[in-house]
Each structure stands twice: as C-alpha cells, then as structure tokens.
Amino acid sequence: MKSEKEKMLAGELYNPLDPQLCWERDRSRDLCLLFNATRENQKEERQRLLAELFGKETDAWIQPPFFCDYGTNISLGTKVFFNFNCVVLDVTPVTISSNVLFGPSVQIYTATHPISAAERRKWLESAKPITIGSDVWVGGGAIICLGVAIGDRSVIGAGSVVTRDIPSDVIAAGNPARVIRTLPLEASEGT
C-alpha cells in the first residue's frame, strides 16, 4: 500500500493531515521563518538555510519573505530570482530552469481540492507538477496553476493567472493568461 507521501507525489488523492506530511511542512515553515528573519548581509546563513530547505545547494537569490509547503519538491536551475513575498505550494515537483525571474508576490500552486463538495468533506487533496523553462520572466502578482508548463524565454504579464501551458518565446497575460504576442528570435550571444 502506498504511503500518503507517495500518493501525493504521484498526483493522487492523499491525506494532507498525515503525520509525516505535517512534520515535513512544519520543517519547511520553520526554515522559511528563519530564512525570512535574515538580513541581506547574512548571505552565508541564507544560502545554508536555502540548501537545507531545498535539499541541495543553490545560487538562487530570494528576497524574504518566501514561503513554500515542502521545499524539497522545488528544483531550481542556476541564477533564479524570487522577489518579495513569493509562495510556492510544492506538493508535487516544481521544476524551475535557469535564469528565471519572479516579480513580487508570484504564487505557484501545484495543489488542488476536489470539485465535489462531498469529496472535499473527506479532506483529501491532490496536485499536478509545474515546469518553468529557462530565461522566463514572471511579472508581479502572477498566479501559476497546477499542471502548467511555461516554455523557454517567455514572459508572463503582471497579475496574470496561468491556467494552461504557455509555449516558448511568447508574452502571455490576462485572466486566464493567453498569448498576446510572439517574441522575435534573439540572435546568439556574441554575434
């Protein structure tokens, strides 16, 4: 029989009140609390706390406050920037590639609840992973919903709600976000 954590990571309905999952979320909240209390001049302490939160070292630049459910389900490429007040509900994997910029108050939600009220009364939830390509810029206040993939080099407008996949090399904005412009192909660096 699968554990609640195995069900959670597989995107199946699971019990979020499972003691192991509660312990892991408490661990994440404690680390976020410590991280959020640091100052800009405490770079080594910030990097240590982020390595513990994510389960590996990172060069991410994160402006406190930052919040997440587990931390260990977040995979970061190099040179990722989170501005103030970002939230990542990483119930299933959140994969963020390199050179990605998040404006203030961006929210990334892998978690969801059943549509049926009868099902919700069982206090079960599920989730779907989120993938964000390289060189993406997500404007402030944007919400990225479960199961979404955002392609390389795309821009998500401030305040947008991303409910479906966004291809590479576009600007998407609105609620729900839709492609409003295709970006020109950039010349290679050094040419």
TrEMBL record:
Molecular function, one GO term = O-acetyltransferase activity
Query: Which positions fall inside the Maltose/galactoside acetyltransferase domain?
Result: 5-59
Alphabetical keyword list: Acyltransferase, Repeat, Transferase
PROSITE patterns in UniProt: HEXAPEP_TRANSFERASES
**Domain of life from the UniProt record:** Bacteria
InterPro entries given in the database record: Hexapep (IPR001451), Hexapep_transf_CS (IPR018357), Hexapeptide_acetyltransf (IPR051159), Mac_dom (IPR024688), Trimer_LpxA-like_sf (IPR011004)
User: Can you list the GO cellular component terms from the UniProt entry?
Assistant: cytosol
CDD domains linked to this entry: LbH_MAT_GAT
| Matching PANTHER family | ACETYLTRANSFERASE C18B11.09C-RELATED, SIALIC ACID SYNTHASE-RELATED
Give the family this protein belongs to, as stated in its UniProt record: Belongs to the transferase hexapeptide repeat family.
| Stated name of the protein | Maltose O-acetyltransferase
The species is Nitrosomonas ureae
